[in-house]
């Protein structure tokens, strides 16, 4: 799933959850693209019918549009100075810093990030996961996610924008009810995993961080018209130092970079649904 273009929030790509929503199923989801690690015994994946492909593409387009709508006021106001390029001499781009990422959690979302380069990257990675989670499309859960992730000055307007983007009509096109729930016997999936982060701009009060992610988005179920697919996308997250922590001011999403997709036999709906329920997520640290 990928997210849409500009985000003020949004889950996940609405990617089918795919900002797919890449939830790109949330306003934040983006297109369901290729995944693959290129390892293991190759198996030919069953061919998708033209109708299935059209359905998936249609859902992705809807998710991207919702995300772009929710973040239309993306530049927002903030209290940071002009950001500058990070200093040289820090940890190598792909090396972990080894520093503890957070001092606590705000509900299920990590908080208490350090006011430095490592803290900004850790914050961006964890917020990327929250923004493409299945909860972002649920009207009962979304306000709390927005409050925990965004700067206070953005929350009220984003609540209204997301309510419009994730309207009952939009959710129905994803096969979900007005509360963002899948039909009985179905499981809605929207989960992302950061692969790496990169500082674009940084000073003591503001940061722009790119987060390269992979994820799975869609609805698991025998009769699902929006099957769970994998995706690769990059989120650009603008952070401000607010209330003693890094918070999101705005964000955007684009497809890729994506590796060559491996030919593998797809798991059935029950296996996917069970994996979502049984495997927990992580707190991410740069």
UniProtKB/TrEMBL annotation:
Transmembrane feature ranges:
53-70
Q: Where is the composition biased (Gly residues)?
A: 1-19
Q: Where in this protein does the record put region Disordered?
A: 1-47, 74-114
Domain DUF8175: residue ranges: 103-256
* Record's keyword annotation contains ATP-binding: no
Its keywords, alphabetically, are: Membrane, Transmembrane, Transmembrane helix
Check the record and name the InterPro entries matching this protein: DUF8175
Name of the protein in its database record: DUF8175 domain-containing protein
Taxonomic classification: Bacteria, Bacillati, Actinomycetota, Actinomycetes, Kitasatosporales
């Amino acid at each position: 799933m990928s997210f849409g273009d500009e985000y003020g929030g949004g889950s996940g790509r609405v990617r089918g959850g795919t900002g797919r929503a890449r939830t790109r199923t949330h306003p934040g989801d983006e297109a369901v693209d290729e995944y693959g690690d290129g390892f293991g015994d190759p198996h030919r994946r069953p061919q998708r019918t033209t109708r299935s492909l059209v359905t998936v593409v249609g859902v992705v387009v809807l998710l991207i549009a919702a995300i772009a709508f929710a973040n239309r006021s993306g530049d927002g106001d903030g209290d940071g100075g002009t950001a500058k390029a990070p200093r040289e001499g820090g940890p190598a781009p792909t090396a972990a810093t080894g520093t503890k990422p957070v001092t606590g959690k705000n509900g299920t979302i990590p908080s208490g990030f350090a006011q430095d380069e490592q803290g900004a990257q850790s914050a961006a990675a964890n917020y990327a996961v929250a923004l493409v989670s299945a909860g972002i499309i649920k009207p009962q859960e979304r306000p709390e996610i927005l409050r925990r992730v965004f700067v206070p000055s953005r929350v009220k307007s984003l609540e209204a924008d997301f309510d419009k983007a994730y309207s009952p009509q939009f959710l129905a096109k994803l096969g979900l009810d007005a509360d963002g729930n899948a039909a009985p016997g179905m499981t809605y999936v929207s989960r992302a995993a950061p692969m790496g982060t990169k500082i674009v701009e940084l000073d003591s009060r503001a940061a722009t961080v790119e987060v390269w992610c992979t994820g799975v988005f869609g609805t698991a179920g025998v009769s699902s018209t929006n099957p769970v697919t994998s995706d690769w996308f990059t989120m650009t997250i603008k952070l401000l130092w607010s209330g003693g922590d890094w918070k999101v001011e705005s964000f955007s999403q684009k497809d890729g970079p994506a590796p060559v997709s491996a030919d593998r036999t797809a798991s059935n709906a029950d296996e996917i649904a069970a994996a979502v329920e049984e495997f927990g997520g992580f707190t991410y640290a740069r």
